[in-house]
Design the sequence.
């Protein structure tokens, strides 16, 4: 069964004083943030599918 995503909301916070972000600490923090975003997105998609299945 194909899934159609009709709306995708992406929120981001940009800090202009954080530097260029090339050091290892920023890279690890960036990866953790990316993982959290992916985890939340998947969770929301699963919730939407569950609600759709209940109908």
Sequence:
């Amino acid at each position: 069964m194909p899934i159609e995503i009709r709306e995708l909301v992406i929120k981001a916070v940009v800090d202009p004083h954080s530097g260029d972000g090339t050091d290892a600490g920023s890279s690890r923090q960036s990866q953790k943030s990316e993982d959290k975003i992916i985890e939340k997105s998947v969770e929301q998609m699963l919730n939407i599918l569950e609600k759709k299945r209940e109908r």
Notes: The mean pLDDT is 80. The chain is about 55% helix and 0% strand. The CA atoms of residues 10 and 37 lie 9 Å apart. The two ends are 16 Å apart (CA to CA).
